[in-house]
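User: For my dataset I need records formatted as: sequence, then structure tokens, nothing else. Please produce one.
Assistant:
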Amino acid sequence: MTRVTVSIEDDLMEAFDAFLNQRGYTNRSEGFRDLIREKLQNTKLAEDANGVGIAVLNYVYDHEERMLASRLMSTQHEHHNLTVSTVHFHIDHDTCLESVTLRGSLAEIRAFADKVLAQPGVRHGELYSVPGEMHVESHHHGGDHHGHAHKHEHLKITT
């Protein structure tokens, strides 16, 4: 590990210490590392138009909005190659929250999220993405009748 010395204005350091304290950090170093990781990740996401990764799209919507649930379901089916899972919560009589886990092309994931979040009746939403790299690996499975290897794509998360 490398030790770094940084000069920071007093008011900025006080604000950073308050930030760390509110989030339960036990030392400044881990807080700085997390901020650097986040900045590097966000930069990679913004610059890599052909990148792949995983993401979670959370959104709150009015399930009483005319045909909204059906439109949201159709959008997920149109992007079935990206969708890993969907969790649906009933917040109250009229409001639901969905959390969709996605994997694949980050550009396609962003397009899917934009389409969902632009639907009338979707009140709040946010996409959290993590870049990765796709690796194709061959595996033998015991239940294979022919003894052939099968190729699988695996997503490796980058740091």
